[in-house]
């Protein structure tokens, strides 16, 4: 599942390059959604290491909190808000915003990967 997260992030980066050429805002919105997908899949992979299957975003946040991953929970919720809701659904984002968010996504994936390995 973590492989899916990295693949989603890579696809987001590729689509960001396409956006830079075409300047189509719908592509940028899809870039944001791929970033959110990466975070979501990484959290699913983390929870699976604890034999937890969460279907909804709320369940994922709640389980992260129960496992004492408070900061990770907050970051998960922030990416949900900024990438999934604000950018993908509402279209309130620009290239610089999405690029910064993708960097945060990569940081989260690396952190989760480290947690899973230990």
What order do the helices and strands come in, and which of them pair?
Elements lengths: L1 H21 L2 H25 L7 H10 L3 H20 L5 H23 L1
Question: Key features?
Answer:
118 residues; mainly alpha; Four Helix Bundle (Hemerythrin (Met), subunit A)
Give a verbal description of the structure.
84% of the residues lie in helices and 0% in strands. With 118 residues, the chain is mainly α. The protein has one domain (2-117): Nucleotidyltransferases  domain 2 (Four Helix Bundle (Hemerythrin (Met), subunit A)). Helix 1 packs antiparallel against helix 5, helix 2 (25-49) runs parallel beside helix 5 and helix 3 (57-66) runs antiparallel to helix 4. The chain is elongated, with a radius of gyration of 14 Å. The model has no long low-confidence stretch (mean pLDDT 98).
């Amino acid at each position: 599942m973590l492989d899916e997260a990295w693949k989603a992030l890579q696809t987001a980066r590729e689509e960001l390059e396409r956006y830079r050429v075409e300047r189509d805002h719908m592509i940028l919105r899809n870039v944001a959604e791929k970033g959110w997908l990466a975070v979501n899949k990484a959290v699913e992979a983390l929870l699976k290491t604890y034999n937890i299957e969460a279907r909804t975003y709320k369940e994922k946040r709640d389980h992260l909190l129960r496992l004492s991953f408070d900061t990770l929970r907050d970051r998960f919720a922030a990416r949900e808000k900024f990438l999934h809701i604000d950018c993908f659904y509402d279209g309130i984002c620009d290239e610089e915003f999405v690029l910064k968010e993708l960097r945060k996504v990569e940081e989260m994936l690396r952190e989760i990967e480290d947690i899973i390995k230990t």
